[in-house]
Amino acid sequence: MTQGTTDDAAPAPEPDVTPLREPAGGVPRVVATPAAYRDAVERLAAGTGPVAVDAERASGYRYGQRTYLVQVRREDVGTFLVDPVPFEDLRELGDALGDAEWVLHAATQDLPGLADLAMRPARVFDTELAARLLGYERVGLGAVVARVLGLGLAKEHSAQDWSTRPLPEDWLKYAALDVELLVPLREHLLAELTEQGKADWAAQEFESERLAPPAPPRVDPWRRTSGSHALRDRRRLAVVRGLWEARDANARLRDLSPGRVLPDRAIVAAAQALPRTVADLTRLPEFASKGTKRRAPVWQRAISEALALPADALPSLRGPGTDAPPPARAWADRDPAAWARLEVARPLVAQIAEDHHLPTENLLQPDALRRLCWTPPEPFTLDGVAAFLRGRGAREWQIGLVAQPLVDALAGA
Hints:
With 413 residues, the chain is an alpha/beta fold. It folds into 3 domains: 18-211, Nucleotidyltransferase, domain 5 (2-Layer Sandwich), CATH 3.30.420; 221-313, HRDC domain (DNA polymerase, domain 1, Orthogonal Bundle), CATH 1.10.150.80; 328-412, DNA polymerase, domain 1. Helices cover 50% and strands 9% of the residues. β4 (67-74) and β5 form a beta hairpin. The chain is flat, with a radius of gyration of 25 Å. Pfam families: DNA_pol_A_exo1, DNA_pol_A_exoN, HRDC.
């Protein structure tokens, strides 16, 4: 599992949990040559049953979300640790798995990077999402393995720089263990889903994950700069935008995480101070490090260009237009009827989720509920509400649980 997933930090194993320290078949060698790759493809193609799959990235170290290691395990064949860097893609590896079900933990974290390598599953089982549907309070891989299988997985290498070469032996052991138990874990979770009558729900969720389109590019991604929300001046926002764009170009060129090139706090500090010269800039504590000083002319150039922009080229305070409803805190004044609907709908959905031992957000996305209450379909009927929710990405099992109760409750509101 990579940085940013739901894996737990490395807690000490609980007394009734047996630590798992070594992969059953030892630590596999990294597949990094054409010959080793062909052998892995042939052996995996000859295997049977579900396939455990995981991927490691270098988030926080490298630019973008490139995959630097792919772990694949088939119970009757063994585990393979594939380095994708020497290869154009891993299409043959994906093809070798055929229509086998891929078992992943937090699949949405890994599927986009695997698709970039031309690896696309025919079927998916997500052990993290299964745990959510079963109402588990802790859904990191370590926590779920401990609860279901009574084994302890160490997670201390989840946030490493997986672009490192060669990869240390301890990291490879960690990577192999991450797929060691996924298939047995799947069997237990599937049995529990079936017992609770949630197996079909899970199948719909997994298929939705598998078919999810790539996320569209963000509009004005620079607005996500941490701390920039406190700047209520268009000129200062222009400085944030200019520095963010200069940092992004520099990070892309150097293949480094943007935060390692220039922290967000430095961007905001410069936007607050509006330095006019390199000397002014480097007097700011956030620009005092050796690396930041060395590139200070680049940063000052971006600042100066922003300071020179005409007024009609400055970014707006509000950001790009959107069809999303306003923040809920403003509803009572702007649309009391919509506020009344939301006040009825939110506790209703929360109660349905509690009755079925689900997190509320896994029953119905909060954005879909807000939109339904802000601009309800007309006429407000079961078919109309079902179509509305379907258009916002709700699955049929979710619609079946919430649509009629929402119609009944909101018709009165």
